[in-house]
Specification:
This protein has eleven helices and three strands; from the N terminus they run H-E-H-H-E-E-H-H-H-H-H-H-H-H. 31% of the residues are buried. It has two domains: 62 residues, Winged helix-like DNA-binding domain superfamily/Winged helix DNA-binding domain (Arc Repressor Mutant, subunit A); 145 residues, GntR ligand-binding domain-like (Four Helix Bundle (Hemerythrin (Met), subunit A), Up-down Bundle). The longest helix has 25 residues. A hairpin with a 3-residue loop joins strand 2 and strand 3. With 228 residues, the chain is mainly alpha-helical. Pfam families: FCD, GntR. GO terms for molecular function: DNA binding; DNA-binding transcription factor activity.
Amino acid sequence: MSIIHVLHAGQPVNQQIYRFLRQEIVTCIIPPGSLLSEKEISARFNVSRQPVREAFIKLAETGLVQVLPQRGTFVRKISARLVEDGRFIRESLETAVVRRAAKQARPDYLERLDYNLELQTRAAQKQDSNEFLRLDDDFHRLIAGSIDCALAWETVENIKAAMDRVRFLTLSEVSPPDRLIEQHHTIFNAIKSGDADAAEQAMRTHLQEMIFSITPISERNGEWFEDE
């Protein structure tokens, strides 16, 4: 591997390596089933093996890698069960958050959500999947921030790693960005109008998109999914 990422001073090295590897796993640059080498990755980032080992531990906690004794650390195949479990927990949290947002979202956050939707459209037009997914996450993060409940998004972020790989794989055909942006607009309009019931239903519909996408994606990429 060549060194393609520069670490930033002042930020914990293990967290930077974790975030970078997480992104590469989620976008399937590092595909399911791949062996991760501590030696190669430490050389790639020009660091000792300790922060790489710590990044691996965090990746294992989020369900993205699996440590097999005497064999090594492997990128886990996608578990449809874990995807659905994460989606269920996320739906429970975010529908509650969006109901509260419809009642008490701060005006400055409404402006930021509106601008975020504009950026999503630009990313979709450029067919920039990585940027679109980042903005998608920002949209949901901003909703939690609008009610001063950042912990809700932090909880979601910790459980959605399995979902993120499926989200990336669905963008081209199963759940194209235009449809997701339309769903985001519906959520935003319900929040803006103060309609908690409509906001909850719009969020529920949006997050249930995963239910309908997991089957066709697993059929097309069967080698990347666990046998369950």
